[in-house]
Amino acid sequence: MTAPMPVAPCCLTRRQVLRGAGAAAGTVVGASVLAACAQGADPGQAAESVRSAGAGTVVIAVADVPVGGAASAEVNGQPVLVTQPAEGEVHVFSAVCTHEGCTVAPGDGELECPCHRSRFALEDAAVLGGPAPEPLGEVSVTVVDGDVVLA
Ligand code: FES
Q: Quick one: pLDDT at residue 133?
């Protein structure tokens, strides 16, 4: 039997919270824990909010995005991931997970959601594993004078 995969405290599922607590107390504890965990972000709305920042909005300097990796940034108050799978090839994706809205982070050659371990590809944010049902939302960008900017 394998050991259970560690899960960040803020990322327990409702079932995990209720299983680990008493019936009545579990409801209260579960509600507070889940409220703290809930990102409340809708993936589609988050990507649209990023796009609404408008063409020319600077996201990050290309030099701040590792080749073969990704960097976190924020546009219009929304978390985004900027990837550079190959030198000079940059993509911007909403960092709002398509599973339950947690914020996805740069991983080792991929993008990783800390909540339930969904993994996404650097090139197109395709789902590589985990419960996420769809890729992360992509935002069109271009490079101007060394900066990644919204197209
Ligand atoms: S919110 Fe569940 S895998 Fe991201």
A: 97
Rg of the chain in Å (alpha carbons): 17
Cα 131 to chain centroid, rounded? 13
With a Cβ cut-off of 6 Å, ligand 1 is lined by 97, 99-100, 102, 113, 115-116, 118, 130-132
Question: 119 C-alpha vs ligand 1 centroid, how far in Å?
Answer: 9
Residues pairing with 58 in the sheet: 149
Please name the residue whose Cα sits nearest to atom 3 of ligand 1. Answer: 116
Q: Which residue segment(s) compose the domain that 13 sits in?
A: 1-38
Residue 47's pLDDT is 93
111 in helix, strand or coil?
Answer: strand
Same domain, 1 and 25: yes
pTM here? 0.78
